[in-house]
Amino acid sequence: MKEQNIDIKTTIEESDYKYGFTSDIDTEFIPKGLNEGVIRLISAKKEEPEWMLELRLKAYRHWLTLKHPTWGHLDIPEIDFNDIIYFAAPKKKKQLASMDEVDPELKATFDKLGIPLEEQKVLAGVAVDAVLDSVSVKTTFQKELAERGIIFCPISEAIREYPELVQKYLGSVVPYADNFYAALNTAVFSDGSFCYIPKGVRCPVELSTYFRINAQGTGQFERTLIVADEGSYVSYLEGCTAPQRDENQLHAAVVEIVVERDAEVKYSTVQNWYPGDKEGKGGIYNFVTKRGLCKENAHLFWTQVETGSAITWKYPSCVLMGDNSVGEFYSVAMTNNFQQADTGTKMIHIGRNTRSRIVSKGISAGQSQNAYRGLVKVMPKAENARNYSQCDSLLIGDRCGAHTFPTVDCRNSSAQLEHEATTSKISEEQLFYCNQRGLSTEDAVGLIVGGYAREVLAKLPMEFAVEAQKLLSISLEGSVG
Amino acid sequence: MLKIKNLHASVDGKEILRGIDFEVKAGEVHAIMGPNGSGKSTLASVIAGHSKFEIEADELSFDGEDLRTMSIEERARKGLFLGFQYPVEIPGVTMANFMKIAVNEQRKSRGEEPLTAAEFLKMMREKAKVVELDAKMTARAVNEGFSGGEKKKNEIFQMAMLDPKLAILDETDSGLDIDALRIVATGVTKLHTPQNATVVITHYQRLLDYIVPDFVHVLYKGKIIYSGDKSLALKLEKEGYDWLINDYKE
Question: pLDDT tier at A27 (50, 70, 90 boundaries)?
């Protein structure tokens, strides 16, 4: 990824980067199962320094002592962790000659989302034209980032190239002992992204745009580390509105963000993993640990639009360590058919004058179950901490469920905490009104849901806000009428 | 334009409309009056296609097409407009966005290209003038936080945007002060042409000072029991419904 002149071949290979391997290990094969040997092998294949291997092994040994968590409002089938291949040779995606060979259903979804044709080609794995704009855009990005000293690369590369940075920050926000999946992820993570913004630097591009062009998928155990040094700024988008399928059913990512003094990070997620079919068969399990650490005057925004996955377990959180730091969380979680989501946030107020804001919009349709789980914790020294929480639920139909589990733990009497919650349904009269103005029921539901989620969608980078709204409509298809 | 013969409608087994005959031709203005609970709003909802009613009729057609085979939105796109007595709020959806979709759906059904953003904004500004609606209102969410008067003005604004062949206005005058009534009623009159038709459902003669009807009908217990010209409305205002009801009691 360092070459300035990227030819077609490497572009194609990089779009296959989603599996986190390079082509020279194509022939490698390691059987299913997890043990220290496998972890040593992963580390060796990645040419990792000794400290990284030690960290993986420590995490693994700790993981062995843990039991699968059961506190979520989720019905999780038993997972056999020895039935998973932790180090698989990548399957080369078949290159398609033209858009005509793309699955018509996938093509239809791309069209509905309004993804430009050239990007559709990349996403669908169609061989791309030599003059494709995105290639030059990509090189331009690389150049712009490098000029400002911004590091943005696969984390496996960062471990080799920037070990002092990675060693300093990796696990500093989400230690391996944090939870079951954080331990597992630390032991076996395949790859992920590393991003470092130097002091005082404002990242000139939405890193989202970069992702789109790369069509970069995630590994099964993805690890992301973002460090915004003092006074810097970055906006980062993970995921894609385009539907993503993956043969790996279990996904357990860890995202750590360090927001140093006076820095600001916006982290946006659009998650559209395969949710399973209408009968609830198949679908991805998405168990994610996301957390950011805010130093003095730091500001961290989490924005997420969750529409995919059979089971989602995710609580992007802010540790407001520094005085005057601010954490914000905006979430739309939609579930349909038999999907289950247990998602929310934690705002831990440690420093003085720390502020946090939570806006959670749950949408349940079909026979799905959607839970908001949140913790607002004010530590004894957090003078004048403030939190505003708003948790809304929208129900579509009468067979779905919405649940709210807000927890407040306040240990400082100067704190001001506000909580608002609503539960609503799309009314027959709203639909009649829209129909009477010439809107189909499907469009009407999409519009009403979009309006309901507007406050959150407005926090997304612009080009994604529009797509995300369409995505909500598409995810609801067949849920009404 | 609208032809209704022997229309019966019931909800949950209860018959509300009990044999309505009603015809509206292009260029006409009809007023439907009648005591509370006589079925006026039900008639409007049935014509618009609300699914909660069981319908039987010898004829229910609009421009020669059988309404019974058409969905609510198909009826709307063909030029049938219902001004709601209680306009519904849609939080987070701006009026501008709502109308843009509505107008373009109608255009699509006629095989026309969608309006460009500039054309649409221009159209919206012009139509807002019909009911003296502040164009800034279109940036607000549909009916959310609107006053009673604003909601009714907003209904007529939408009518102006969609330019229907037949507009059925269900108690558009209720809850309006005198100035708002004048503005709303004048707006409706401005939109009237020899090619379209208006049906106003009202309790009060005062609306009909502005929207002068060609026909006035009295609906009672699910039937049109009396029809006359505009003088009927004046008589009803003075004398109430008793003289009619007594004559027509079964």
Answer: very low
For B229-244, the pLDDT digits (tens) are 999 999 998 888 888 8
Looking at the DSSP assignment, which residues form a beta bridge with residue B139? none
Q: How far apart are CA A80 and CA A76, in angstroms?
A: 12
Domains, in order of start, for chain B: 2-245 (3.40.50.300)
SS3 assignment, position A178: coil
Size of chain A in residues: 481
- Burial tier of A2 (Cβ tally within 10 Å: 0-12, 13-18, 19+): exposed
| A25: pLDDT strictly greater than 50 | no
Is the per-residue pLDDT at A89 higher than 50? no
pLDDT at residue A199 is higher than 90: yes
Give me the count of residues in chain B: 250
The shortest CB-CB distance from A435 to any of B73, B84, B89 is to B73
Closest approach of B71 to chain A, Cα-based (Å) = 8
Cβ within 8 Å, pair A440-B109: no
ipTM: 0.96
User: Going by C-beta distance under 8 Å and a sequence separation of 6 or more, which residues neighbour residue A14?
Assistant: A1, A6, A214
Distance CA A253, CA A330 (A): 20
H-helix or E-strand spanning residue A340: strand A340-349
Query: What percent of chain A clears pLDDT 90, i.e. is strictly above it?
Result: 50
Q: Which amino acid does the sequence have at A187?
A: A
Q: Look at B77 and A448 and tell me if their CB atoms are within 8 Å.
A: no
% of chain A at pLDDT higher than 70: 79
> Structure tokens of A462?
């612009």
Asked if the C-beta of B62 comes within 8 angstroms of chain A's C-beta atoms, the answer is no
Strands B215-220 and A222-228, bridge-based pairing: unpaired
The answer to whether the beta carbons of residues B199 and B30 sit under 8 Å apart is yes
Q: For residue A344, give both structure tokens.
A: 């929310």
Closest residue by Cα to residue A49 from A187, A167, A223: A167
Per-residue pLDDT, A246: 60
Residue of chain A whose alpha carbon sits nearest to that of B94:
A451
Give the chain B residue nearest A429 (alpha carbons). B88
**Exposure of B207 by Cβ count < 10 A (0-12 exposed, 13-18 middle, 19+ buried)?**
buried
Across A97-102, average pLDDT: 72
- Residue owning tokens 């502020």: A355
Inter-chain contact A434–B48, Cβ cutoff 8 Å?
no
